[in-house]
Amino acid sequence: MQKRAYLLIIASGVLWGTIGIFVRGLYGLGFSSLQVVTLRVFSAAVIMLIYLLFTRPELLKFRFRDSLYFVGTGILSLAFFNLCYFITIRETSIAIAVTLLYTAPAFVAVLSRVFFRESLRAKKLFSLGLTLAGCAFVTGYLPKLGSSPFIPLPWLLTGLGAGFGYALYTIFGKAALKKYHTLTIITYTFIFASLALLPLVNFENSGGAFSTGSFWIYLAGMGIFPSTLAYLLYTKGLEEVEASRAAIVVTIEPVVGTLVSYFIFREMLSGWQLVGILLVLTGVVLIQERK
């Protein structure tokens, strides 16, 4: 069962890594970062809501007092980390933003120790170090020895905020699984995230894009593959795997994103990025339990 769970988490990371295909397509149609994030969570919410209404409407029931779980996964995690992430990209660079985002496994390891009493053995810490170093190589964020790039404090905090918000999905999702089905958690995650983001976005200047066929293809693809399906697989995998281990395994996402940029968008892939890919994959393999 645990082997299957690890495969589900790896698959979710692969799907998350393909999001650049759809995001670039929507950027090409004139949408802003915040608009793309909102379109992502709203389309996924609609897909999940329609699916459950026609197949398993009983899974839409939840106790109001348990809405804290979905505030955590939807607003504190999904909406918050996306906002922090795109602000950091805008004010610094993609490389710095992605590197700071992937401090998430470290946050998960600490929070899992506090809330779930998960162990912090040497093997887990070593795997964590490998994946963090690998992500730094993959994203091209390689400060020279003896010096460090200057990142203004506000953008350092937004970058770390993205990592922290990203980590919160694993923590709140793991807790919610004790009471609710995976489909329930995913659906209300996207609904609560949509409720938080829709008031912040204005689509008046993008009305023309809605009449193009390519928009609906990109929207459907983004709503299904790197959103609905990816979160379903990841949350399902969390049922069998420690939260801290899951967070390390899913760092395969930037590896896939880099490969997508190379094979689809013909962006350069350096030797250091290949080293980073190997480090991440090594960390992902090492973290898995052996019977």
Describe the fold and architecture:
- The protein is an all-alpha fold.
- The chain has one domain.
- The protein is 73% helix and 0% strand.
- It contains 13 helices and no strands.
- The protein has helices at residues 2-17, 19-28, 33-55, 67-91, 94-101, 104-115, 122-138, 153-176, 182-197, 213-238, 243-249, 252-263, 271-286.
- α6 (104-115) runs antiparallel to α11 (243-249) and α8 packs across α11 (243-249).
- The mean pLDDT is 85.
List the helices and strands and how they pair.
Layout: H1 2-17, H2 19-28, H3 33-55, H4 67-91, H5 94-101, H6 104-115, H7 122-138, H8 153-176, H9 182-197, H10 213-238, H11 243-249, H12 252-263, H13 271-286
Helix pairs in contact: 1-10, 1-12, 2-10, 3-4, 3-9, 3-10, 4-5, 4-8, 4-9, 5-8, 6-8, 6-11, 7-13, 8-11, 9-10
Beta-strand fraction estimate: under 5%
Gap from first CA to last CA: 12 Å
Residue runs with pLDDT of under 50 for 5 or more positions: none
Order of helices and strands: HHHHHHHHHHHHH
As a percent range, the share of helical residues equals over 70%
Overall structural domain count: 1
Largest sheet report: none
Rg (CA only): 18 Å
Structural class of the secondary structure composition? Answer: mainly alpha
Averaging pLDDT over every residue, what do you get?
A: 85
Shape: globular
Number of helices: 13
Number of strands: 0
